[in-house]
Amino acid sequence: MYDANYLAARLRNASVGADDSPFLRNHQTGEVVTYGQFFANAEKMAAVLTAAGLTPGDRVAVQAPKTQAMLELYVGTVMAGGVFLPLNTAYTATELEYFLGDATPRVLVCDPARQDSLAPIARACGVSEILTIASDETGSLTDRRDAQSPGFPPVPRAADDLAAILYTSGTTGRSKGAMLTHAALASNSQTLKEYWQFTRDDVLIHALPIFHTHGLFVATNITLMAGASCIFMAGFDADAILGYMPQATALMGVPTFYVRLLEADGLAEAAQNMRLFVSGSAPLLSETHETWRAVTGHAILERYGMTETNMNTSNPYDGDRRAGTVGFPLPGVELKVTDPDTGKTLPQGDIGVIEVRGPNVFAGYWQMPEKTAEELREDGFFITGDLGKIDEDGYVHIVGRGKDLIITGGYNVYPKEVELLVDDLPGVTESAVIGVAHPDFGEAVVAVVVPDKGADVTAGQISDGVSGDLARFKQPKHVVIVDALPRNTMGKVQKNVLRDTYAGLFT
Ligand code: AMP
User: How confident is the model over 374-430, as pLDDT tens digits?
Assistant: First the structure.
């Protein structure tokens, strides 16, 4: 029955004939939802959207707490032929005004607590229906869902039709809406399911947000496509995750999950029966990788992806998972490192801009043909903006975002090189190295350093500690000691915030 809808058919395939198998265990309520129940609810969601006037290609914007109903809405939107557009729950009303104005969705789904403040903005942007879901799954959307019958026949959609738009985090300028097709989402999840060997027997601990590619597509689509099940948590909770590990097989997390789990009691015993720990969305410190291996016996599998491309590379499932690397290009994905000025492919080992091509790559930025043309080459390669290299064994290393590159006195400094040395000094937990405007050098290298708890580390010790290993121009001109680095909800260090904070250091 789902065959006509490209993505819906692929999400449903593994569970056909297995309606009684568990899909999701709701951490909040303890309730277990079967595949049959989940897809029946998704069909009802599709019926609600269609009754609300949704036509194929219309956007459904969602800013709501992470709930099972939101997952049903995602699959229901796809079935109804719509384009799912999840928004970070941290965005303010002013930020939402930009997204709604840009994407002009037909339907907005929000937390009931925000309905009154968002309604005038949404109406002004042409939204015709505002529906709600609260963190306890109550709201006008779930009420309407429950008044519908299952059996909605998915609207025909082809491989190239849009299934979702995800906005980039926009640290360099305006957020851009990455247009993701049915085929891009389906093919990437299929590849990852096979590469990471997910089967029906897997139980994934799902604690990532579902407004982002990691939790929404990687975690959810893989579970569905494998006919596996997940333990669905509204957010990260170290003790609860440790409690679930003995009944689970896999965890997908951002690096901060692993740092925090290492601080909790009982990790070694809890992790014994797990088969896979995946990390991504931000760099995993080598130290975390090594400590995790020492404590649990498991090597965390680090992968690299982004909103525009889904996942590009992964450390091997069978084979050496190397700390500080993001592994190899996934099957079907081509990856090259190019010269930022000429676009020519660089020799193996040289640092340059990472470009990728494959069925995973997005179709362009929503209503931004010029931005699309700047970043997506005609031959299909996407210029990721990440700087990296391919080492002699073929492993890909990310050394930072292009915009994070520091140019001081005409010399390039890759922050990662300095950060790795600083992080290795005694008493240092982590660091972020940024470029700050400097009257003589254009930019100067500044190290922002987080000491280990209780460690008495001084700026002078950091400067002395790295001076023997780094060319003069790479050495920090200033060291700041702080308690913590600013991070976004996906655990990424916000270097733009640090650059703003320390902008006036030398002027
Ligand atoms: P987003 O679009 O929010 O998923 O952010 C994508 C960006 O996160 C990439 O372009 C990288 O800069 C960064 N990123 C993702 N995974 C990794 C990783 N494993 N190591 C280093 N950076 C990563």
Answer: 999 999 999 999 999 999 999 999 998 888 889 887 778 889 889 999 999 999 999
The atom number, within ligand 1, closest to the CA of 308 reads 2
| 425-to-294, 325, 449, 465, 488 alpha-carbon distances in Å | 20, 21, 11, 7, 26
Residue 338: count other Cβ atoms within 10 Å of its Cβ: 18
The preferred substitution site among 176, 360, 398 for testing ligand 1, maximizing ligand atoms within 8 Å of CB, is 398
Helix (H/G/I), strand (E/B), else coil: 95: helix
428-460 burial string, b = 16+ CB within 10 Å, else e? bbbbbbbbbebeebebbbbbbbbbeeeeebeee
Tens digits of residue pLDDT in 144-170: 999 999 999 999 999 999 999 999 875
Q: What is the rounded distance in angstroms from the CA atom of residue 372 to the CA atom of residue 370?
A: 5
Q: Where are the alpha helices (DSSP H) in 384-446?
A: 415-423
Q: Is 359 exposed, middle or buried (0-12, 13-18, 19+ CB in 10 A)?
A: middle
Cα(362)–Cα(357) distance, rounded to whole angstroms?
10
Tell me the backbone φ, ψ of residue 424, rounded to 5 degrees. Answer: -80, -10
Burial letters 7-25, b for 16+ CB under 10 A, else e: bbbbbbebbeeeeeebbbb
pTM for the predicted model, two decimal places: 0.90
**What pairing do the DSSP bridges indicate for beta strands 352-357 and 382-390?**
antiparallel
**What is residue 194's predicted lDDT score, i.e. its pLDDT?**
98
Please report, for residues 126, 180, 203, 355, the alpha-carbon distance to residue 303 in angstroms, rounded to integers and kept in the order given.
Answer: 39, 20, 20, 16
Chain-centroid distance, C-alpha 153: 31
Residue whose CB lies within 8 A of the most ligand 1 atoms, among 188, 304, 313, 335, for a mutation test: 304
CA distances from 312 to 54, 150, 331, 384 (A): 33, 37, 9, 10
Beta bridge partners of 165: 179
Q: How far is CA 163 from the centre of its chain?
A: 17
